[in-house]
């Protein structure tokens, strides 16, 4: 089984709809991240969390919110989706400074 | 602020050619980590290598090799005898040890490598 899972894998929605993307991990890591990928821009950080009570904004948090329901679960919400939020979204976990980040398979979101 | 630049947006080679993907970074921290990730057409991100700022030894893993030079702030990636399966987008990334954002990764824009048979 995959260490980091994301649901859904693909989603098409309409402008103004509320969308939740979910991430679960079995690695036992405290640190979790949400990134979005746009062509030519690499991945950019939306939000990150050190533990259930510690949530922080990344460089592009406007229009997004998150919830850390448990150590293993970190959800990303788009309260009112807009077309320029169409992107590939990745969840990642991190065991600490000396480790690489482990990424989920990604969620492809299209906002019409 | 940290920054990663991958100047080559797209490279096309013929199978068995060697190819080097460039990565230049900026950081004010003395302790940092550099990474390379591969994103095949299926979309997932595959970790390739991590290098810390105190270890400038080059590394070779099969057909892959990495050249880390602090003097030029570069961490280049070479694929020897490229194969069609190497076709992917490759990302270079940087993490600062004292970064306030929880060791967030700053990614370059990626280099799309196309290996033709």
Task: Give your account of this protein's structure.
The complex is a heterodimer of chains A (about 110) and B (about 120). Chain A contains no helices and 11 strands. Chain A is an all-beta fold and about 110 residues long. In chain A, the strands form 2 sheets. In chain A, strands 2, 4, 5, 6, 9, 10 and 11 form a 7-stranded mixed sheet that branches. Chain A has a 4-stranded antiparallel sheet with strand order 1-3-8-7, with no helix packed on it. Chain A has strands at about 5, 10-15, 20-25, 30-40, 40-50, 55, 65-70, 75-80, 85-95, 100-105, 105-110. Chain B has strands at about 5, 10-15, 20, 25, 30-40, 45-50, 60, 65-70, 75-80, 90-95, 105, 110-115. The termini of chain B are far apart. Chain B is globular, with a radius of gyration of 14 Å. In chain B, the strands form 3 sheets. In chain B, strands 2, 5, 6, 10, 11 and 12 form a 6-stranded mixed sheet that branches. Chain B has a 4-stranded antiparallel sheet with strand order 3-9-8-7, with no helix packed on it. Chain B has a two-stranded antiparallel sheet with strand order 1-4. Chain B has about 120 residues and is mostly beta strands. The chains are: A mainly beta (about 110), B mainly beta (about 120). The interface between A and B is medium-sized, with 27 and 24 residues.
Summarize the topology.
The complex is a heterodimer of chains A (112) and B (117).
Chain A: E1 4-7, E2 10-13, E3 19-25, E4 31-38, E5 42-51, E6 54-57, E7 64-70, E8 73-78, E9 87-94, E10 101-103, E11 107-111
Parallel strand pairs in A: 2-11
Antiparallel strand pairs in A: 1-3, 3-8, 4-5, 4-9, 5-6, 7-8, 9-10, 9-11
Chain B: E1 3-5, E2 10-14, E3 19-21, E4 24-26, E5 32-39, E6 46-52, E7 59-61, E8 64-69, E9 74-79, E10 88-96, E11 106-107, E12 111-116
Parallel strand pairs in B: 2-12
Antiparallel strand pairs in B: 1-4, 3-9, 5-6, 5-10, 7-8, 8-9, 10-11, 10-12
């Amino acid at each position: 089984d995959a260490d980091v899972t994301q649901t859904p894998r693909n989603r098409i929605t309409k402008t103004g709809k509320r969308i939740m993307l979910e991430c679960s991990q079995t690695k036992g890591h405290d640190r979790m991240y949400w990134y979005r990928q746009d062509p030519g821009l690499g991945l950019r950080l939306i939000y990150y969390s050190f533990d259930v009570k510690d949530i922080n904004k990344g460089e592009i948090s406007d229009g997004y919110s998150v919830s850390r329901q448990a150590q293993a679960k970190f959800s990303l919400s788009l309260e009112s989706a807009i077309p320029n939020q169409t992107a590939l979204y990745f969840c990642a976990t991190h065991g600490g400074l000396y480790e690489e980040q482990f990424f989920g398979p990604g969620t492809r979101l299209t906002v019409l | 602020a940290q920054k990663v630049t991958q100047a080559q947006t797209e490279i096309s080679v013929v199978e068995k050619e060697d190819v080097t993907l460039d990565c230049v970074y900026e950081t004010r921290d003395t302790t940092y980590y550099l990474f390379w990730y591969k994103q095949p057409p299926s979309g997932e991100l595959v970790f390739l290598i991590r290098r810390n700022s105190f270890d400038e030894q080059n590394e070779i893993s099969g057909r892959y090799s990495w050249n880390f030079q602090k003097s030029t702030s570069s961490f280049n990636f070479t694929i020897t005898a490229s194969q069609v399966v190497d076709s992917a987008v490759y990302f270079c990334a940087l993490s600062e040890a004292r970064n306030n954002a929880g060791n967030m990764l700053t990614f370059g824009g990626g280099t799309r490598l196309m290996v033709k048979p």
